Amino acid sequence: MFALVFLAITSADYELWACGSITKGWTPGQNQNASGLHRRDAQGAWTHPGYDHPYINAIAADPRDPATLYLASGNGMIRARSNGTQWRIMTGWDMTEGNGVAADSKGNVYLALPDGIGFSPDRGNTWTRRETGLRRKYTQAIRVAKDETYLVAATESGVFRSTDQGLHWTQAGAPGEMTFDVVQSPHNPKHWVAVAQSGNAYQSLDAAVTWTTIAAVPKVHTLYNAAFDPQKPNRIVLGGWQTGVLLTEDGGTTWKSILPNAQVWRVTVHPATGAIYAYVHEKELLHSTDNGKSWTSAGLPGGVIRDLVFLQQVAQ
Question: Structurally, how many domains does the chain consist of?
Fold first, then answer.
């Protein structure tokens, strides 16, 4: 006989990683303290692995080695091994100012750039360009679908899709829109959400092939990112400038503002507890365990945080 054992996912299984700069009170010409990569353990304590770096935009973990992180930075792509403590710039002078980064289990790494998309087949060691078909090359974010059969990119002229590891791209949605983020549901792999500078939000229910506007989203100001609740399929949050944080618990039919008028760079949801985390410009990271009825500080005061990513804890 065989016994089935179910392991509960707890908050102790995850750490929150953030990247950005502590800018409040900074004087030009002086070093920016504690800028770059930040790591918050399950007990809420922050550490600053790696080096002070003024301009890191995005974080992605290597699926084959979760202790290796890929960082989209002003230098291009940085590979940070040993839980973010050993850094190496992997791109050259022709691939800088990285906006977003993604990796798959085959060792492919994709870098979203102001002038296109960089591609590495060997975990960042060598690079080429893969941007054929993009109408305007500025790319803000790039994602690998969970089944790794296609890619989705958020660009200056909308959402694009590729089925050949980025060799060719086709327009999928939001034509003419400066899109800042695109995310895939952890529950329904065919469900994607994208957000735009205009304040519009879009969704796809057919694996990013076609997109429609989410009409119920209140159009306030720029939306910077979206995040699904890994535990509840119909719970999604959006973050934006002056928009604050928007929450739906019915899959997007209705939305409510739970941090109104705030200048939010990034919002995410804890994979185990469902707590919502939002970074307010040059204030602090806030978190709520009651759907935004109340918020408490989670640290990192006075900065600009460009990405918030929960990753499973990796042993030192």
Answer: 1
